[in-house]
Amino acid sequence: MSSTLFIINDAPYGNERAYNALRLAGALAGREDQRVRVFLMADAVGCAKSGQKVPEGYYNVQLMLGKILRKGDVALCGTCMDARGLTDQDMVDGAKRSTMGELAQWTAEADKVLVF
User: Residue 18 sits in a domain of what CATH number?
Assistant: First the structure.
């Protein structure tokens, strides 16, 4: 089994970097031969905020993360969450607070690391 780690830094809305990263991660997560992990850093921790309401017809990164969480792992930089006033209770079910130590471990274990 091949493993891919996605490290996402950009906010969920305002540009399409997080959206495109999650599109690719979701497509890979649907494959049986892939292990997908997503680590959200900096403004990207907002991708995992629960209760997102977006205009009709607009993409919703919360829903996109849900697809990945059914097959893979999603972790958030705890320091980045704290800096933005986000708590564990603010986040979608399944996404977990994490550390740079865990990111280092995931990076060492991954066959591919993609940074967005």
Answer: 3.40.1260.10
